[in-house]
Design a protein that fits this description.
Blueprint: H1 2-44, H2 49-54, H3 58-73, E1 77-81, H4 105-108, E2 113-117, E3 129-137, E4 143-152, H5 153-156, H6 163-192, H7 198-214, E5 218-223, E6 228-231, H8 233-239, H9 257-264, E7 269-276, E8 279-287, E9 296-303, H10 305-330, H11 337-347, E10 355-361, H12 362-366, E11 377-385, E12 398-400, H13 406-413, E13 417-419, H14 426-431, H15 433-441, E14 444-454, E15 457-467, H16 475-512, E16 523-530, E17 537-545, E18 551-561, H17 563-581, H18 586-605, E19 621-629, E20 634-640, E21 646-648, E22 654-656, E23 661-662, E24 675-678, E25 684-688, H19 700-711, H20 719-730, E26 739-746, E27 754-759, H21 766-780, H22 786-803, E28 808-814, E29 817-824, H23 844-851, E30 854-860, E31 863-871, H24 874-880, H25 884-892
Parallel strand pairs: 20-23
Antiparallel strand pairs: 1-4, 2-3, 3-4, 5-6, 5-9, 7-8, 8-9, 10-11, 10-15, 11-12, 13-14, 14-15, 16-26, 17-18, 18-19, 19-20, 20-24, 21-22, 21-25, 25-26, 27-28, 28-29, 29-31, 30-31
Helix pairs in contact: 1-6, 10-16, 11-16, 16-17, 17-18, 19-20, 21-22, 22-23
GO cellular component, one term: plasma membrane
Protein name: Histidine kinase
GO molecular function, one term: ATP binding
Length: 897
């Protein structure tokens, strides 16, 4: 084989060289003819050639030009000659003047002559020259001379010589490839036959044939025409083939129709099961040659009759395990009782039941502990499957089950009840005969009722129905239903416990938040609080009336959720109430809160904290505290890590307060900066927590832009309308954090309800101050409380003149109540004390405390203010009771006075 390949390659190379030579010779001749004509005509047509021929010495003029053109064009010679053929030029000068060798008669007549001829020696060497002779004519067409140009055959050979190495090289490469291919084929044959001789191969074939007929699996081989090529003994037994079946078309063998069609089809088959008489055969089919299906196919047959029943049960078990796994993944994805019940109903349809309903005790839905008293009344909370065409109770209905129903049998006993044939289930039919009759008519025929119990607590029942062509339930199905219900019951109980904890936390938090509007004249307020879906957090707010008709606004946020966050929020809100009672400046209130949070962190991080306490200390808290004074229209605020409030002007413009941002509470040692704003009457101050403007799906900047758009043009709205508009625009579908919103619309104290006097530091002016008060009270229609007001003003002014320092000022504010304020430049606070019988003084503040509803002291940058509040109906009460003197005497309890 190798020698044959060498001979073929050599013949191909020789043939290629010969063909190349012939083609090159022909191409070279044609090219030489063209080049010689072009060179001769170019020289003959060159300027000055005609004059050179007519000159006395043509050789002197034409010889240099002819040699230059010859070298430049690559021809072997250019000869200029007379019309008689005498050379004027030649590469060798000694040949000049001799007769030209070639045909010149046609050229003398004005035609071009191309021919092959020999001649004198040339620089290119000897050889046959291809030469062209052209005439040189003057302007009148007279032939004045001849020009011949030519190329020798040796010069032409350069055109085909470069191709010869390529052809020879290609032959060598082809020979090398043939040698390599022969070697590879030889090695593969040796590898596939493992170096076996023909006798050994024959013996191996015999062994393979014996094994083919001995295996317990039928083997059929067919060709492209559908003829049976081979059938082993097991195939003949399984299919009942005749002895002379080989070589016959498959369609003539009398095979079962499905198997015959499968063998004749071109498609591959894997483990298809077909019935052949009383056998179940697993059939596999593959082509004999993977890349040439038309060559035939191989079919294997395996008897699976004995494994059919076992494999069927295994498949059912596998599907059940898969369903249980899906139930573990799909049930309990949330901590919502109704959603968990619906997940149980959905996961069982249609793989296990056609209709599934879930009934739970109302106490489970409310999160409380179920009791036996409520077992008969269950609420339908979930349905799935073909319930839309079955007369079953709808979601939300309360069902009172009779004692004989499967549901009431399964709850007390704690075991499942199987009704394989609902036509015989009298207890189920007695519950609602009309509904039961219609359900049976529509194909409902089997029921498994399973109790939903977790940690020994009954939660409800799950009802699995089958309808139509579905097989009835079997005892094995009951076990599976119980396993499915047990997994769901744990998730339901977790959701129930979360519902209880969530309700407790919400109740606790709402109890710690304001329940109603406090009595005050400075602001029109409205608020909203929305707890998170996953659990309450630590958002809180407050509206606290302060002395002097002022109002404090507070809003804070404790990081985290659950009871711990709610309890921490309650402690902070209580602390703000206490600090506001002291009438501290806003920055001092935040400073006191900061110290409180630090102490709370230290307490909860010590070893005395209970193990497993929810949260380790206060992980973060923010707060905003503001005081609004309606007499001046000023609002002073400070914020500790809290979002900046938004101000809506009376004209609807929306701006930020630009209050300085300080660090959150609990870091300790950081000062809190304040900001003072002037709010015209009708302005709205909007306070909020970050849950309103920020969540997992919305950035803070996007939320703030949405808040500004919601507040745009809200200048003419009431506080309640603004509050609702903001909630409608920004409330998320599923809140992941608490939302607290407080809108305060400002009012200014009217000048007609305010009176103020400067008092000289002279006790003699006290009667005139009382007279001024009496006159102003008469204008306000408060004569009934005139006596007590004069007494209070007299005592406070006297104390300010005697113990304080100038300037002394008296101010009366008439709003919901009458407020009397006396300010002086001293920072010393008066103290209420019990005077003895022999004391000459010490009873002034005692009298003020007795006649005023509230009184107190607050400090200002210029001193202090002593204030007292009276209700407008105090005068009527005093008139119907004791006189002020009687009251005073009764307080001291000394009948001798």
């Amino acid at each position: 084989m190798f020698l044959l390949q060498v001979v073929i390659v050599v013949l191909l190379v020789v043939t290629a060289v010969a063909a190349m030579l012939l083609q090159a010779a022909s191409d070279a001749l044609q090219q030489a003819r063209r080049e010689s004509v072009v060179a001769a005509q170019a020289f003959a047509s060159a300027p000055g050639v005609v004059q050179a021929f007519r000159s006395p010495d043509p050789t002197a003029v034409l010889q240099p030009r002819a040699e230059a053109v010859r070298k430049r064009t690559g021809v072997d010679f250019i000869v200029a000659m007379s019309t008689e053929g005498i050379r004027y030029t030649y590469p060798y000068p000694e040949e000049i003047g001799k007769k030209f060798v070639g045909t010149i008669e046609p050229a003398r007549e004005g035609r071009t002559v191309i021919e092959q001829a020999g001649g004198p020696p040339l620089p290119a060497g000897k050889g046959t020259a291809v030469q062209a002779v052209v005439p040189v004519t003057d302007s009148r067409g007279t032939v004045v001379g001849l020009v011949s140009a030519g190329i020798t055959a040796k010069n032409v050979s350069r055109l085909w010589m470069p191709q010869l190495p390529i052809i020879v090289g290609a032959g060598v490469v082809a020979l090398a490839l043939a040698t390599t291919g022969t070697s590879l084929v030889s090695r593969r044959l040796r590898r596939q036959t493992r170096g076996l001789a023909p006798a050994e191969l024959a013996r191996m074939y015999e062994h393979h044939d014996a094994v083919l007929h001995a295996v317990r699996e039928g083997v059929l081989i067919t060709d492209a025409d559908g003829r049976l090529v081979l059938a082993n003994d097991e195939a003949q037994r399984l299919l009942g083939l005749p002895a002379a079946a080989q070589g016959r078309p498959v369609r003539e063998l009398g095979l079962p129709e499905p198997i015959g069609r499968l063998i004749m089809s071109p498609e591959a088959v894997t483990d298809e099961v077909h019935l052949a008489e009383d056998r179940l055969l697993a059939v596999n089919k593959r082509p004999t040659f993977p890349h040439a299906v038309e060559e035939g196919s191989v079919v294997t047959l395996r008897d699976t009759t004995e494994l059919a029943a076992v494999s069927g049960r295994a498949e059912v078990a596998r599907e059940r395990l898969k369903l249980l796994y899906g139930a573990g993944v799909r049930i309990g994805t949330t901590l919502d009782v109704r959603r968990t019940a619906q997940e149980l109903a959905d996961v069982a349809v249609p793989q296990f039941a056609d209709v599934v309903t879930v009934d739970l005790l109302d106490s489970v839905l409310q999160g409380s502990e179920p009791t036996a008293e409520g077992w008969r009344r269950l609420r339908r909370v979930a349905t799935s499957g073909a319930h839309w065409r079955m007369p079953v109770y709808r979601v939300g209905e309360v069902i009172t089950y009779l004692p004989g129903t499967p549901q009431m049998r399964t709850l007390p006993e704690g075991r499942s009840v199987l009704e394989a044939d609902l036509r015989q289930a009298h207890g189920w039919q007695e519950q609602d005969p009309d509904r039961a009759r219609e359900a049976l008519e529509r194909g409902l025929h089997a029921l498994v009722t399973v109790p939903l119990r977790a940690r020994g607590v009954p939660l409800g029942v799950a009802n699995f129905y089958r309808a139509g062509d579905s097989p009835p339930f079997e005892p094995e199905d009951v076990s599976f239903a119980e396993e499915l219900a047990a997994r769901a019951a744990v998730a339901l109980d977790n959701a129930r416990r979360f519902t209880r904890e969530h309700a407790m936390a919400v109740t606790l938090q709402r109890s710690l938040l304001p329940r109603g509007q406090p009595d005050q004249d400075a602001l029109e307020v409205a608020w909203r609080y929305l707890p998170a879906e996953a659990g309450v957090g630590g958002d809180w707010f407050d509206v606290i009336p302060l002395p002097g008709a002022r109002v404090a606004l507070a809003m804070g946020d404790v990081v985290g959720h659950g009871l711990h966050a709610a309890a921490t929020m309650g402690r902070l809100r209580t602390a703000v109430h206490n600090f506001s009672t002291l009438d501290l400046p806003v920055e001092e209130v935040l400073g006191q809160l900061d110290d409180l949070v630090v102490r709370m962190d230290n307490e909860e991080s010590t070893g005395s904290a209970t193990e497993g306490h929810e949260g380790e200390g206060v992980t973060g808290a923010t707060c905003l505290y503001a005081i609004y004074d309606p007499t001046a229209g000023k609002c002073t605020m400070a914020r500790a890590g809290h979002p900046d409030p938004v101000v809506v002007g009376p004209d609807g413009t929306v701006t930020c307060s630009d209050a300085p941002a300080s660090v959150p509470l609990g870091l300790g040692g950081h000062p809190f900066e304040t900001a003072e704003l002037y709010l015209p009457e009708g302005s709205q101050l909007v306070l909020y927590t970050n849950g309103l403007v920020e969540d997992r799906t919305r950035d803070l900047d996007v939320g703030l832009d949405a808040l500004r758009r919601a507040l745009d043009g809200a200048g003419g709205r009431t506080a309640e309308e603004t509050c609702q508009a903001v909630i409608d625009a920004l409330k998320p579908a599923h809140a992941s954090d608490d939302i607290a919103l407080l809108v305060a619309r400002t009012r200014l104290f009217p000048p007609s309800c305010l009176a103020e006097w400067d008092v000289p530091s002279d006790p003699a002016v006290v009667p005139s101050v009382r007279a001024h008060c009496r006159e102003r009270l008469r204008e306000w229609g408060l004569e009934d409380i005139g006596f007590t007001t004069e007494l209070i003003v007299s005592e406070l002014v006297t104390n300010a003149i005697r113990y304080g320092s100038p300037p002394v000022t008296v101010r009366l504010l008439h709003g919901r109540c009458l407020i009397c304020e006396v300010s002086d430049g001293s920072s010393t606070s008066p103290r209420l004390r019990q005077a003895t019988t022999m004391d000459e003084g010490g009873r002034g503040l005692f009298l003020v405390a007795q006649f005023a509803q509230r009184w107190g002291t607050r400090y200002t940058p210029r001193g202090k203010v002593i204030w007292a509040e009276q209700s407008a109906d105090d005068g009527a009460t005093a008139a119907t009771g004791h006189t002020p003197v009687d009251v005073l005497l009764e307080q001291f309890g000394d009948p001798a006075l």
